[in-house]
Amino acid sequence: VTFLITSKDVIHGFRIQGTNVNVMVVPGEMSKATARFDRPGEYLILCTEYCGVGHQGMFGKVIAE
Fold first, then answer.
1. What is the pTM of this model?
2. Mean pLDDT of 1-26
3. C-alpha dihedral sign at 24, 11, 63, 16
């Protein structure tokens, strides 16, 4: 899976736990990351760069089936 990631405000980090995906997301630029999920499951996405108020709530998940 290829992820294209952008930011409108500040620098963010985009990390998918359990994979080698860990990229910086800079405002005005496109970051690209590719991951292969060999096992089904849920993979947590975290912002790894402190980006301000609400940083602790920046998370998501990828579901590989």
1. 0.88
2. 95
3. positive
